[in-house]
């Protein structure tokens, strides 16, 4: 699955009254396996440039991507202890 497929899935989501995608109920667990894979690959390529990574996932904010990455990193650190 590539970025265009993910964008199409996103555009099929509910819209709010202003025509944008509803953000209600979005949390880190809502990040799909395909999104996670893309975030990991882009992080390897771009490092901590969250705005650039979020630019490839236009339905995600920079803050969501960074928060997800930090939570993921903490989980990995805890599991290695």
UniProtKB/TrEMBL annotation:
SUPFAM superfamilies: Homeodomain-like. It is found in: Nucleus. It comes from the Eukaryota. The keyword Nucleus applies. InterPro entries: Homeodomain-like_sf, Myb_dom, Myb_TF_plants, SANT/Myb. CDD domains: SANT. Residues 23-70 form the Myb-like domain. One of its GO terms (cellular component) is nucleus. Keywords: DNA-binding, Nucleus. The keyword Repressor does not apply. Its main location: nucleus. Residues 32-76 form the HTH myb-type domain. Residues 1-26 have a biased composition (Low complexity). One of its GO terms (biological process) is regulation of DNA-templated transcription. One of its GO terms (molecular function) is transcription cis-regulatory region binding. This is Uncharacterized protein. It comes from Picea sitchensis.
């Amino acid at each position: 699955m590539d970025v265009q497929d993910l964008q199409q899935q996103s555009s099929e989501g509910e819209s709010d009254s202003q025509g944008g995608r509803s953000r209600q109920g979005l949390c880190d667990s809502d990040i799909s396996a395909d999104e996670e894979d893309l975030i990991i690959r882009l992080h390897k390529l771009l490092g901590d440039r969250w705005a650039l990574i979020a630019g490839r996932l236009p339905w995600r904010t920079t803050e969501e991507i960074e928060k997800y990455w930090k939570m993921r990193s903490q989980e990995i650190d805890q599991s290695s202890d």
